[in-house]
C-alpha cells in the first residue's frame, strides 16, 4: 500500500472540512424571537424539552455557535439555547435608542418571549458581565449564573478597558481599510474597517484563527471565523457605548442571590488574589481559575472548563 498519499490526504482533511462556511451540528436548529424591539437569532442544541433550560450569551465579535463545543458536552443534560447578541451573528443591529442597559434587557425579553422559567444563564466576557448584571438586577429571572472570564477589577466604576474603548474611532475618513495589508479582527473601529472584516475570505480567517489559537479545536476555529464574517457593529461611538456600558458591573456580584460561579483565565498569583477578593462578594458563589486557559478558556481548556461547570451544575 502507498502510505504517503494517504497521509497527505489526512493532513489536509481539516482544511477540506472547513474550506466552506460550516453548518450547525447535526440535530441542532435555529430560529428568531422578537424581543426588546429587535429580532434575536438563536441556535438550539439537540432538543431536551424535559430538561432545564440553559441560555448562553457570547462575547464581543462572536456568535452563538462559538459555544458549540461546550454545548455539545452539555446537551444531553440541558435544553440549550445560544443567542446571537444584538449586532452579532444573524441578530438585528444596534439602534439609535440603545444604551448600557439594552443588552441586559435583550436577554430579559428573550427569556420572556420564549416563555422560559428560571433558566440557567451562562455568559463569556461581555456576555459574562451581562448575565452577572441580570443575576443582580433581575433576581427572580435565573436559576443560576455561570460567568466565564468576566472583568472583575474596578468594580466600583467604569473599568479601564471600557474607558479606553468608550469613544472608539468611528470616523470613516480617519483610516482607510484598504491600506491594511494583513488580516486583523477588531471589536471597534470606523465602519469601513469593520465591514472589511466581513469581506475577509473564510480561508484567511481560518488560517488566522489557527495561528492565534493553537489550543483550539477545528470546530471552535471554524465558528470563530464565521462569527467574524457576521459581526456588524458597532458603527458609531454611541453604539460602542452600548457594549462598554454593559461592562459597568458596579456591585453586581454582591447582589446575585442565586448560586453563581466565575471561571477565570490562568493568571499570576497577584492577579488571582485580586480575582478571589472580588469573588468574596458573592452570596452563593465561588471562583475557579482554569490553569493554562486564556480569555477564551472554554476553547483553550474545554475539558477542564466542562468539568468545573458540570460539577457546579450538579449542586443545583
From TrEMBL:
AB hydrolase-1 domain segment(s): 54-300
Keywords in alphabetical order: Hydrolase
Region (Disordered) residue spans: 157-178
Key word Acetylation present: no
Cellular component annotations (GO), alphabetically ordered: membrane
Pfam families associated with the record: Abhydrolase_6
Hydrolase is among the record's keywords: yes
Signal peptide range: none
Gene Ontology MF terms: hydrolase activity
Biased composition range(s): Polar residues: 158-178
Protein name as annotated: Alpha/beta hydrolase
Species annotation: Sphingobacterium alkalisoli
Lineage summary: Bacteria, Pseudomonadati, Bacteroidota, Sphingobacteriia, Sphingobacteriales
Amino acid at each position: 500500500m502507498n502510505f504517503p498519499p494517504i497521509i497527505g490526504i489526512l493532513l489536509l482533511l481539516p482544511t477540506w472540512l472547513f474550506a466552506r462556511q460550516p453548518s450547525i451540528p447535526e440535530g441542532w436548529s435555529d430560529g428568531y424571537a422578537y424581543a426588546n424591539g429587535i429580532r434575536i437569532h438563536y441556535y438550539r442544541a439537540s432538543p431536551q424539552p424535559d430538561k432545564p433550560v440553559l441560555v448562553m450569551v457570547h462575547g464581543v465579535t462572536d456568535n452563538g455557535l462559538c459555544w458549540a463545543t461546550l454545548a455539545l458536552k452539555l446537551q444531553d443534560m440541558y435544553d440549550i439555547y445560544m443567542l446571537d447578541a444584538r449586532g452579532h451573528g444573524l441578530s438585528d443591529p444596534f439602534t439609535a435608542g440603545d444604551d448600557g442597559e439594552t443588552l441586559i434587557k435583550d436577554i430579559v425579553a428573550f427569556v420572556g418571549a420564549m416563555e422560559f422559567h428560571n433558566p440557567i444563564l451562562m455568559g463569556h466576557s461581555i456576555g459574562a458581565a451581562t448575565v452577572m448584571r441580570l443575576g443582580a438586577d433581575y433576581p427572580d429571572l435565573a436559576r443560576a449564573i455561570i460567568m466565564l472570564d468576566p472583568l472583575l477589577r474596578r468594580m466600583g466604576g467604569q473599568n479601564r478597558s471600557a474607558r479606553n474603548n468608550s469613544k472608539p474611532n468611528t470616523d470613516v475618513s480617519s483610516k482607510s481599510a484598504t491600506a491594511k495589508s494583513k488580516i486583523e479582527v477588531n471589536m471597534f473601529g470606523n465602519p469601513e474597517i469593520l465591514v472589511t472584516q466581513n469581506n475577509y475570505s473564510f480561508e484567511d480567517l481560518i488560517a488566522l484563527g489557527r495561528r492565534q489559537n493553537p489550543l483550539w479545536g477545528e470546530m471552535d476555529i471554524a465558528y470563530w471565523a464565521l462569527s467574524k464574517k457576521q459581526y456588524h457593529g458597532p458603527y458609531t461611538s454611541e453604539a460602542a457605548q452600548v457594549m462598554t456600558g454593559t461592562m459597568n458591573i458596579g456591585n453586581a456580584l454582591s447582589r446575585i442571590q442565586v448560586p453563581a460561579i466565575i471561571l477565570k483565565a490562568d493568571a499570576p498569583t497577584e492577579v488571582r488574589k485580586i480575582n478571589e477578593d472580588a469573588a468574596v462578594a458573592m452570596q452563593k458563589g465561588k471562583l475557579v481559575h482554569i490553569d493554562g486557559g486564556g480569555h477564551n478558556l472554554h476553547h483553550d481548556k474545554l475539558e477542564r472548563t466542562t468539568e468545573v461547570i458540570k460539577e457546579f451544575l450538579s449542586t443545583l
